[in-house]
Predict the 3D structure of the following.
Amino acid sequence: MKIILKQDIEKLGDIGDVVEVSDGYARNYLLPRGLAVEATKGNLKSIETEKKAKSKKEEKLTDGLKKIAEDIAKKPYSISRKAGEEDKLFGAVTTADISDVLKENGFDIDKKKIILESPLHELGEFSVKVKLHKNVIAEIKVCVVKE
């Protein structure tokens, strides 16, 4: 069955995409939840206009977020922690700690948007990515210093 997606669905497509799915998946899951509509001529036209409006809105949003990303990346952020021998931290610097430092500097960024492969366990300067939007990723410098 051909359907038009009304929302972004991971591993299936984005809003406005026309995709082929099994009849059962469409009838029992996608259509009742309002995630998709059948691909008729009328629905194709209405989705196309919605898609254009959404792309304009998305463009404005990404422009604003790019400005925020530039502002965030301008300066390094310092976090002080107690450290033992060989500059190993007693604890770790996590995404929550980085989020708190950003909040102190006027940027309210959720810890879930901070991409950190593993918590920081040593002193030094680290490059950390902040995903503000699926197309906007800021790279900030985090300096972990001895208390």
